[in-house]
Amino acid sequence: MKSINISLPDAMRTYIEEKVATGGYSSVSEYFRELVRQDQKRQAAEHLEAMLLEGLNSGNTTEMTPDDWEDIRQAVRERITKHKGSNEG
């Protein structure tokens, strides 16, 4: 694991040290890792929401047919086979 050094104003450093002491974190590093994980989750949720909105605004809906579902299943099978093949090499 690599380390990153950051400079903080005294007020922020005090705040972080208090969070570590009272928030159940074992270290400042653990506190920052949690902040990064939360930010990653937030960005993933924003991306998902944007994709869902794009889908909703993409036009008229059409009913899925049995052939549509079979095409999806076949595409998934092909991806799985390709993924397994790339992991064996």
Write the SSE topology:
Layout: H1 10-22, H2 28-56, H3 66-88
Task: Tell me about this structure.
With 89 residues, the chain is mostly helical. The protein has one domain. It is 73% helix and 0% strand. It is built from three helices and no strands. The chain has helices spanning 10-22, 28-56, 66-88. It is elongated, with a radius of gyration of 23 Å. It starts with 9 loop residues before the first helix and ends with a helix. 0% of the residues are buried.
Describe what is shown at a glance.
With 89 residues, the chain is an all-alpha fold.
Defining key terms:
73% helix, 89 residues, single chain, mainly alpha
Strand content: under 5%
Number of domains: 1
Which structural class do you get from the secondary structure elements?
mainly alpha
The total count of helices amounts to 3
The largest pleated sheet is described as: none
Mean pLDDT: 94
Shape: elongated
* Quaternary structure: single chain
Radius of gyration: 23 Å
Q: Give the % helix.
A: over 70%
Number of strands: 0
Order of helices and strands: HHH
How widely separated are the two ends? 28 Å
Low-pLDDT runs of 5+ residues are none
